[in-house]
Amino acid sequence: MFTGIIQEVGKIKSIIQKDNARILTVASVKLINEIKPGDSVSVNGACLTVVEKSNNSFKVEAVEETIKKTNLGKLKNEDPVNLELALKLGERIGGHLVTGHIDTTGKIKKIKKLTKSWLFEINFPKQFRRYIISTGSIAVDGISLTVAHIDDDTFTVSIIPYTWENTNFKFKKVGDEVNLEFDFFGKYIENFLKTLKVENYGKKDKILDRG
């Protein structure tokens, strides 16, 4: 579990294609001493397991399913990536609870520079519209952000100077793909209501049979 507060912007050092998976070597300065093999690390919002570590980098493996749902398959050497270590019990949650299980990717449609912030308009697949609400939380490339505006297939987030300077957003441009994770509470509620509806239909059928 993560919080969506990026702790370091790492850099892709090398990429090895292994069957349908990719071994990513990520250069790190701030977090490397806290990382050990077996740890979970959020890389652009995707929860990956550290398989190897050196003095200034670590390796993670992105399997086929992860590559399909994320932008990790499009990363190149020297690309900046957002990094966050797994949340420890008792720590403050500065953003919102983020699982690291990416739902889909979006594409940056527009970037607007304001006086002290930036507005990013992002396209997303329409089937995920029900999980996004105005002023609700969303994780974009692992960053906990608040939805400022929502349409049928786009949403807008505001990037403050601190987020701009401490994440990979300052390197983003129109057309770039970003990882999206929607608030998992909404997904749990949806699943609960669906299950409840099915159970109620079952009870109704039994009553009708008895009648």
UniProtKB/TrEMBL annotation:
Function: Catalyzes the dismutation of two molecules of 6,7-dimethyl-8-ribityllumazine, resulting in the formation of riboflavin and 5-amino-6-(D-ribitylamino)uracil.
Any GO molecular function: riboflavin synthase activity
Subunit architecture: Homotrimer.
Keywords of the record: Repeat, Riboflavin biosynthesis, Transferase
UniProt catalytic activity: 2 6,7-dimethyl-8-(1-D-ribityl)lumazine + H(+) = 5-amino-6-(D-ribitylamino)uracil + riboflavin
Keyword Transferase tagged: yes
One BP annotation, GO: riboflavin biosynthetic process
Ranges where the Lumazine-binding domain occurs: 1-96, 97-193
One Pfam family this sequence matches: Lum_binding
Name of this chain's protein: Riboflavin synthase
Functional pathway: Cofactor biosynthesis; riboflavin biosynthesis; riboflavin from 2-hydroxy-3-oxobutyl phosphate and 5-amino-6-(D-ribitylamino)uracil: step 2/2
CDD domains: Riboflavin_synthase_like (cd00402)
Lumazine-binding repeat intervals: 1-96, 97-193
EC number assigned by the record: 2.5.1.9
InterPro entries assigned to the protein according to its UniProt record, in alphabetical order: ATP_synth_asu-like_sf, Lumazine-bd, Lumazine-bd_dom, Riboflavin_synthase-like_b-brl
NCBIfam families: PRK09289.1, PRK13020.1, ribE
